[in-house]
Design goal:
The protein is α/β, with parallel strands linked by helices and about 375 residues long. It contains 14 helices and twelve strands. It has two domains: about 250 residues, Aspartate Aminotransferase, domain 2, CATH 3.40.640; about 130 residues, Aspartate Aminotransferase, domain 1, CATH 3.90.1150.10. About 40% of the residues lie in helices and about 15% in strands. The strands form two sheets. Strands 1-7-6-5-4-2-3 form a seven-stranded mixed sheet, with helices on both faces. It binds pyridoxal-5'-phosphate.
Length: about 375
């Protein structure tokens, strides 16, 4: 299916709603039946019917089908957050006493699930440096049920060889789950490499306007239906119709936004790499990135997020840099219209800052939709105030 077709037409039955171009927000909690038999059928298989909007909803349905198609997946569920998608995808595939192999430093709330919640059920997690397939081979135990991936990681962009990990997991009967938030399905399709479940925070590029929290989980029809009938319905973590509508609207411009952001990010990487105040730039599609070849093999492109190590004699200089940015906002998240920055030192006690530790001098920059020159000028004037 063409991406343009998926985004503009697929799953939209406009004759059902007055040939309106934009779909309606079906803000209804429940749906009416005319016969007892219809109602009985709906109770028997809620996945096939509109019964109650904690389950299926027509606006959400349009979004689900489009997102599944973008990921080249059979099926999809859309959650009220990326974290909820992570929870459902993992929880549905483990039982008491199981073991998980996860990449190092996955998204913070995935890590909290592995470290704080799952141990209550005797489920343990081994973290591995996912850049080397041998580390997965070594970490697998007889009770390993899930391998959890995030490629690239959203701070240091470490990749995993998705096909190699999927092949290994399949041979051992282990479920693979991959967080694809960095790339979106436009730049990477993990299902095509044999990954079982792929998730993304739709808060980021899919929404694209910093006004919605949502998450996507894609996989086989069998696996997704099973999750719908257990975690999705039980936790009640599905997306609301209005938020689904915002994401459908976000999808209309997704490829265009990524195209601009990619072009801009490359220019900013180049600007930073040649700047006297910058020690190093970390970006997966930079030719100096250690896994550049793998990135080119399994990703169509990269954009938006990059990390740079600033040359500073102390933490004050880094703080002055951040606080003097006029147009690049200091805030979490990314994928919206606005450029953002997070200094690593904001996540640590001031007293533990060590200027000789290059990680402590890292800043993560998200390049948004502004003109590139506007961002470069902002960075330059802030460097000058350090
Ligand atoms: C933001 C993010 C999430 C979580 O998504 P929410 O929508 O914030 O719940 C998961 N993984 C990555 C890589 C993220 O950046």
């Amino acid at each position: 299916m063409d991406i343009s077709y998926i985004i503009n037409e697929f799953a939209e039955d406009r004759e059902q709603y007055f040939n309106a171009v934009a779909p309606p927000i079906m803000q209804s909690s429940n749906f009416i039946f005319k016969t007892v038999d219809e109602m009985r059928k709906a109770f028997a298989d809620e996945y096939a019917t509109y019964l109650y909007s904690r389950g299926k909803n027509p606006t959400v349905e349009i979004l689900r089908r489009k997102l599944a198609a973008l990921d080249a997946a059979e099926d999809c569920l859309v959650f009220n957050s990326g974290a909820a998608a992570i929870f459902a995808g993992v929880f549905a595939n483990v039982k008491a006493g199981d073991h998980i192999v996860s990449v190092d430093k996955p998204y913070a709330w995935a890590q909290k699930l592995f470290n704080n919640i799952l141990p209550r059920f005797g489920i343990t997690t081994t973290y591995v440096d996912g850049r080397y397939i041998e580390n997965f081979e070594r970490a697998i135990l007889p009770n390993t049920a899930v391998i959890y991936l995030e490629s690239p990681n959203s701070w240091d962009y470490a990749l995993q060889d998705l096909k190699a990990v999927a092949d290994l997991a399949k041979a051992e009967g282990i479920i693979t789950i991959c967080d694809n938030s960095y790339c979106t399905p436009i730049y990477q399709q993990p299902i095509g490499f044999g990954i079982d479940l792929v998730l993304q925070s739709a808060t980021k590029y899919i929404g694209g306007h910093s006004d919605t929290i949502a998450g996507v989980l894609c996989g086989s029809h069998h696996m997704i239906k099973k999750i719908f009938n257990s975690e999705y319905m039980t936790v009640g973590s599905g997306i609301q119709p209005f938020n689904a509508w915002l994401l459908i609207r976000g999808l209309r411009t997704l490829p265009l936004r990524l195209e601009h952001i990619t072009r801009s990010t490359y220019k900013i990487v180049d600007f930073l790499k040649h700047h006297a105040r910058v020690e190093e730039v970390i970006f997966p599609f930079d030719e100096d990135f250690p896994q550049f070849e793998l990135a080119r093999q399994q990703m169509k492109n990269a954009c938006g997020l990059l990390t740079f190590v600033i040359k500073a004699d102390n933490m004050d200089a880094i703080e002055r840099f951040c606080e003097n940015l006029h147009h690049i906002f200091m805030a979490v998240s990314w994928g919206g219209h606005e450029s953002l920055i997070i200094p690593k030192c904001a996540g640590m006690e001031a007293a533990s800052f060590d200027v000789n530790n290059r990680e402590h001098r890292m800043l993560r920059l998200y390049c948004g939709l502004e003109e590139t020159s506007y961002l470069v000028n902002d960075l330059e004037q802030a460097f000058n105030k350090m």
